[in-house]
Write a structure and sequence with these properties.
Layout (H helix, E strand, L loop, with lengths): L1 E4 L36 E8 L3 H4 L3 H15 L5 E5 L4 H8 L4 E5 L7 H4 L2 E4 L5 E5 L4 H4 L9 H9 L2 E4 L10 E2 L4 E5 H4 L10 H12 L3 E5 L17 E2 L3 E5 L4 E5 L9 E3 L29
Parallel strand pairs: 2-3, 3-4, 6-7, 9-10
Antiparallel strand pairs: 1-2, 5-6, 8-9, 11-12, 12-13, 13-14
Length: about 300
Amino acid sequence: VTGVQTCALPISAASMGLGMNASWVQAAIKGSWYMPDENELQERMFLSFGASSAVHQDWATPVNNNIALLAKTIAKYQPVTVLCRPNELAKATAACGTTNITFQTMALDDIWMRDMGGCFVVDDQGGRGLVDFNFNGWGDKQAHANDANVADKLSKLTGATYIASQLTGEGGGIEIDGNGTAILTESSWINSNRNPDMTKAQIETELKANLGLRKIIWLPGIKGKDITDGHVDFTPVFLQKAWWWRNSTTTRTLMSTRSPASTWKFSRPPPTPMATSCRCTRSEERRVGKECPRCV
């Protein structure tokens, strides 16, 4: 899912007419575009009612039904635009309804708006841009000829300034705090199936230019284990300028404030208090607010 947000974009080397072999002294002239936190107020949400039967097989209809439910739920709070194929407009309208929901027909391969729809950016003067990260089906793992054009079409539909990044990537590969800091995985960005012959430094410079970033926190990620090569959007998330990262051995919290993004504090959260009424000796089951099944 990708939402139209009041945000704008930095000037990239691509918008300056520089090719992939241009000097990487600086990928962009520092501009005023930046990508806001996705938890800030949004003008509109975009969804794709276009589950591919070739990909989802017998689940294509249930997937679209869930998208319709999501559209109707979001529409209670903000406008929604549903993308669909021309021959599925009647089906999409019947499933989603029309209360605070509009429809836009276009050729589609599948449903992943967060990944193929680009990233909206804003500036302090109310301008809006859209960065196209040249969706290629997560490294040519899935048909994407139509989905690769969605970001360009959305920029025209919303009147956003179109910004062609020099990078190939996906919106689901970006976690951002809206204050110039992002968390990314190396496995999905520094990958030959997306950005061959580009160094980590080149990729980071372009990302900073495209999204108005000052700091990027790189996680290693997991390459080749899922179609996304380990997108960051299923690991950490910023929570009011903080994110939690959980794995099998530790839980850590990283705090950021509105002060410069270089100011960080790492700490471990306090241990979970044990329920005093629990008589069980298995500590992992003794949790506040949850009765131990061995003691009930």
